[in-house]
From TrEMBL:
This is GNAT family acetyltransferase. InterPro entries: Acyl_CoA_acyltransferase (IPR016181), Diverse_Substrate_AcTransf (IPR051016), GNAT_dom (IPR000182). Transmembrane segments: none annotated. It holds the Pfam family Acetyltransf_1.
């Protein structure tokens, strides 16, 4: 798709980001996510001191997708790693290369800034996402254990 710009989200993007974020929550069956969590996430995204950041895919001036990441220190390296926590492209613009553009952008950022790696998880059943991810590399075979500790 031509005319795609990928850039960092800023405070003025809130209104454009929110419907995509809500659609992403719906995709994961998490419409019940409390509003204060969304507020905190957004405030972290736009806080230049926070390790959370969002890159937006913008087509003809409209925000069509986002990648939200956490840059974190590592024990096995001096340089940080980047965890891609949330990736979403508007349903109407899927299959046109925006997901790929968002990942390519993170790879370019990481190479420029010296991250050791970019990584993410997905459900084994998310065939659409995995079709995109498999273009980059094979899944590494790690299995996630996740213990709920709250409530
Ligand atoms: C996963 C997701 C971000 C991919 O975004 P996208 O912009 O559609 O992806 P792209 O167009 O860059 O590429 C996807 C790849 O799969 C194919 N593809 C993806 N969706 C497609 C569709 N609806 N129709 C046809 N092909 C599709 C593309 O052809 C491309 O492969 P190729 O270029 O090597 O042939 C998007 O489907 C999405 O937001 N899904 C819901 C949320 C989600 O699953 N997020 C990831 C959680 S880990």
């Amino acid at each position: 798709m031509s005319g795609v710009v990928v850039r960092t989200a800023v405070a003025a993007d809130r209104a454009a980001w929110e419907p995509l974020w809500q659609a992403y929550l719906l995709f994961y069956g998490r419409k019940d996510l409390p509003a204060d969590v969304t507020e905190m996430t957004w405030s972290r995204i736009i806080d230049p001191v926070s390790n959370v950041f969002t890159r937006l895919a913008v087509v003809d001036g409209k925000v069509r997708g986002f990648a939200t990441c956490i840059l974190h220190p590592r024990t096995w390296a001096i340089e940080p790693a980047c965890y891609l926590e949330d990736l979403y492209v508007d349903e109407a613009t899927r299959g046109k290369g925006l997901g790929r553009a968002l990942i390519d952008d993170l790879i370019a950022m990481g190479r420029r800034d010296g991250w050791t790696n970019l990584y993410w998880h997905t459900e084994t059943t998310n065939a659409t996402a995995r079709r995109l991810y498999d273009r980059y590399d094979k899944a590494d075979g790690f299995v996630r254990y996740r213990l709920p500790l709250k409530g």
